[in-house]
Amino acid sequence: MSATFIIAEMSANHCGDINLAKKIIKTAKKIGADAVKIQTYTADTITIDCQNEEFLIKDKESLWNGENLYSLYQKAYTPWEWQGELKAYADEIGIPLFSTPFDFTAVDFLETINIPMYKIASFEAFDYPLIKYAASKGKPMIISTGISSLEEIQGAIDACKSVGNQDITILKCTSAYPAKVEDMNLVTIKDMLERFAPDGVKIGLSDHSMSIIPPVVAVTMGAKVIEKHFTLDRDLGGADSGFSLNIEEFSTMVKAVRETEKALGKADYTINEKNRKFARSLYVIKNIKKGEKFTSDNIRSIRPSNGLHPKYYEEVLGETATCDLKFGTPMKMEYIKKGTQ
Fold this sequence. Notes:
Helix content is 33%, strand content 15%. By secondary structure, the protein is α/β, with parallel strands linked by helices. α1 (18-30) packs parallel to α4 (80-93), α6 (128-135) packs parallel to α7 and α9 packs parallel to α10.
């Protein structure tokens, strides 16, 4: 089984400090992430500065309840002037860094710093013009599907393919922050594989829960990408810290995923000969004289495996011994005289 691609999503967990952002990148590499992802937007490229009611988040379960969209994104964005430096730093220490663009200008900018792939967020997953524009750059596309219908998921895939991009991964995602494990419906991954994998689309998981179990389950179902928010310490704050794993938790998740991959292995019916020697076989359990019949009182299936296979037990019963046999002798075919019943 090929290795699962594990993405550490930095998002707003840099808390406005480029040095903290670099430390997140360095730590993510150290604890086993395969890549770090950032987001490329400004408040003006993702929404407008409007105080109308529909621009207000009204969800008591949301970490951002009561926030205006524009003001939230002003606080949460990653300054564009950092991103080239962060990319160069990630290259220097040997971990890929890529981004989620939220409009055409973000794609254009990310091309100037040679981002290796693109991620489309759930809330942009049916913005087909944006998807086409990013996909037209010829780099791998990863698309979250947290609020997309089946028709819209297919539309996103078609948008990539319409510009000749066949390297597509779609992520099962529950768009709640944090997501409840009981709301994740991970069996959907199997359905996604059945629907989309025949056309060459890879499947993964974008997980906003605070558990490491969903990534493990997703891998057993065939997920090839795991995306999880990562922070050095939730106490540092940041707009996304409330649904981000800390260093210990993320490290534990990575180890669990890697152990899951090892445990899944491959279909294998190879016999472990070392342990098979302690399996059962037919043995003499009472002294037997030549010409005496074999019965359930004098032969039995026991450990170890030096004697006849237990499948011969019923065939041997009632036959006679060709020689004297001592207690503890492993049975052999040569000790059996056939046709004596």
